[in-house]
Specification:
CATH topology: Jelly Rolls
Largest sheet: 6 strands, antiparallel
Number of strands: 15
Bound molecules: 5-phosphoarabinonic acid, nickel (II) ion
Structural class: mainly beta
Shape: globular
Order of helices and strands: EEEEEEEEEEEEEHEE
Oligomer: single chain
Radius of gyration: 17 Å
CATH architecture: Sandwich
């Protein structure tokens, strides 16, 4: 038989996924400022907020196919609010997702369809099962890059509109080095 080199390598320590078919998307402050309670005019529009590596093979509409991902969320804050991903429901609510912590410290904020929010702590080696019907967002609460791996079905899709219409009811701030959670009443 033939023995092949792997097509992709995931450097778990340094937080890089490399290889053919790996896509990289970068989120800059200009496209993220509306996530925050109080946008910070002093933060440059080209500040890198987070970067997502994703990799899959084959037909993305084929049930059973998987995506592999890595999110690297920078330790930036916006008027004391911790940096976070945009957050989404899956378009296909039958599709669950695994997240796993690879470095840094943070929270995985989740929201049920009825609006109830809850969170899990994220750190090196933490593993998170995200139910298909639950919206999810990563928040960097530490002072270094938060690195989180992910695996989910290619047919899951990302529904961002639903989050714009019904935002997460909790926000996370760091004030004088203390985490402060503000929840909708
Ligand atoms: O599929 C996922 O849940 C992740 O790969 C996210 O897409 C990633 O963390 C970036 O978050 P968002 O898509 O909400 O901007
Ligand atoms: Ni997801």
């Amino acid at each position: 038989m033939e023995i092949f080199d792997p097509r992709v390598q995931h450097d778990f320590v340094n937080g890089i996924v490399e290889g053919k078919d790996v896509k990289i998307s970068k989120k800059y402050y200009r496209d993220a400022k509306h996530f925050y309670l109080n946008p910070d005019a002093s933060l440059a529009d080209d500040t890198l907020m987070y970067q997502v590596y994703s990799y899959s093979e084959g037909n993305s509409e084929q049930v059973g196919n998987l995506n592999w991902g890595l999110t690297v969320l920078k330790p930036v804050s916006v008027n004391q609010e911790c940096n976070m991903t945009r957050g989404h429901f899956h378009e296909n609510l039958d599709c669950a997702e695994f997240y796993f912590g690879l470095g840094g410290e943070g929270l995985l904020l989740m929201m049920k369809e009825d609006g109830t929010c809850f969170a899990e702590k994220v750190f090196l080696n933490s593993l998170h099962h995200i139910d298909g019907s639950v919206a999810h967002r990563l928040i960097n609460t530490g002072n270094e890059d938060l690195k989180v791996g992910a695996c989910w079905p290619t047919i899951a899709g990302h529904d961002y509109e639903r989050i714009e219409k019904h935002p997460f009811g909790a926000r996370v701030f760091k004030k004088d080095d203390e985490l402060v959670i503000e929840e909708d009443k």
